């Protein structure tokens, strides 16, 4: 999503991981929202997640790393973003 596109292949991967209903919801959100609004919502979710138990945080970090490893694009910006999200959870 960092490239502001949600290709068919990305949609299939997203649907496989989160389900068809979540895929439809995220497509709608992308169509009506600016990326900055979406990024703000993600950061708000991470703020809430920071109050979780350590074991829950570790599960989230593990899942983030798994998703990142499966991603098609690994560039400096995506690495910075994943590192920032993990740092917020620690």
From TrEMBL:
Q: What organism does the UniProt record list as the source?
A: marine metagenome
Protein's UniProt name: DUF5667 domain-containing protein
């Amino acid at each position: 999503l960092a490239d502001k596109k949600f290709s068919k292949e990305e949609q299939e991967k997203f649907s496989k991981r989160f389900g068809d209903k979540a895929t439809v919801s995220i497509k709608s959100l992308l169509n009506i929202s600016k990326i900055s609004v979406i990024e703000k919502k993600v950061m708000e979710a991470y703020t809430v997640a920071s109050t979780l138990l350590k074991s829950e945080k570790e599960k989230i970090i593990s899942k983030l790393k798994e998703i990142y490893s499966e991603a098609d694009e690994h560039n400096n910006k995506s690495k910075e973003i994943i590192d920032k999200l993990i740092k917020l959870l620690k």
